[in-house]
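Subject: for your reference before the review

Hello V.,

The reviewers asked for a structural picture of the protein, and I figured it would be easier to keep everything in one thread rather than splitting it across files. Below is the amino acid sequence we used in the manuscript, unchanged from the supplementary table.
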Amino acid sequence: MTEQEVADRARAVLARRLKVDPSTIGAETPVAELGLDSLDLVTMAGEFEEVFSITIATRQIMEIRTFGDIVRQLTAKVAAPA
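And here is what came back from the structure prediction:
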């Protein structure tokens, strides 16, 4: 899966959860601007784990500041050997 495919899928999941237009979520959009706090990020991480069949460590979740951070972490996990 390419980084763009990961971004598109993650953007769709996030937009559906937040009930916003996916086009409003850019790579450098801060998660706080989207209204996500640390608890929301943990919840979203669970959704991303299901969608992408991966595991995300709590410390990785706490490093997220932008949508681009989400995409980079997901891409690295999806690309990692099982």
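For the response letter, the relevant points are probably these. The helical segments are 3-18, 38-52, 58-62, 67-79. The domain at 3-79 is CATH 1.10.1200.10 (Non-ribosomal Peptide Synthetase Peptidyl Carrier Protein; Chain A).

Happy to draft the paragraph if you're swamped.

O.
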